Amino acid sequence: MTFDQIRNRQEKPSWKGVLPGRPVPFFLDDGDGERSAVFDSLVTVLLSKDETDGQFGVFTMRQPKGDLIVPHSHVDVHEIFYVVEGAARVFVEHADGRQESKLLGPGDFGYVPAGIVHSYRGEAEYTKILGVCTGGFERFFQALGELTDERDVPLTEPFTPSPEQMQEAFSRYRNIPLPDYRWEEA
C-alpha cells in the first residue's frame, strides 16, 4: 500500500490538514502533527518538505526500549538524532569501514550523512528523539507505517507493515536496508 493510498482512505485521522502544506508560520501543541504507528513506535511529522520548499523535514519518534532498527543507509538523505527524553544508542559505519556506537541521552546530538550505514535502538523504557532529515524523507515513516490518532507510546495497536508495504516504502524513499549487516557492539 502506498502513502497516497493510505492518505486517501475513507477514515482520515483527526489530524489531517494540521500542517499547512506551504511555507507559512504555524505552531503545534505538544503531541500535534501527522502521526503514524511504525511497529511499536509513534512517529510524528512536525514539518515536511512542503513547509520548507523541499529543504528539510522534522519529526519526533517515541519508542519503547527494544530491538535494533534494521541497519540501513540512505542514498541522498542526511539525518540527525537529538534525544529529547530517554536514551538511544546510535550505530554508524564510517567511510573507512570503522564502526562506532554512541549512547545518547537527553540533550545529546548525533549526525549521519547520506550514504553512511547506521542504526539505532531505544535504551530507556521510553525514548523520544527529534529527527531532522533531508526534505521528503520524513514521509518515509508514514509510508512504512499506518496513520494513527494515537499520541503516545505504548501504542494501543502496534503496526507491522506487510513485506510489500516495506518494499514500497524502502524503494520509494531510496532507503537501503541491510538486514544481514552486523554491528560489533550490538
Automatic annotation (TrEMBL):
Query: What single Pfam family name could you report for this chain, choosing any that match?
Result: Cupin_1
Where do the Cupin type-1 domain residues begin and end? 55-122
The record, for SUPFAM superfamilies, names:
RmlC-like cupins
Concerning InterPro entries, the annotation shows: Cupin_1 (IPR006045), QDO-like (IPR053146), RmlC-like_jellyroll (IPR014710), RmlC_Cupin_sf (IPR011051)
Under the heading PANTHER family, the entry gives:
PUTATIVE (AFU_ORTHOLOGUE AFUA_8G07350)-RELATED
Protein name as annotated: Cupin type-1 domain-containing protein
Source organism per UniProt = Actinomadura keratinilytica
**Higher taxonomy:** Bacteria, Bacillati, Actinomycetota, Actinomycetes, Streptosporangiales
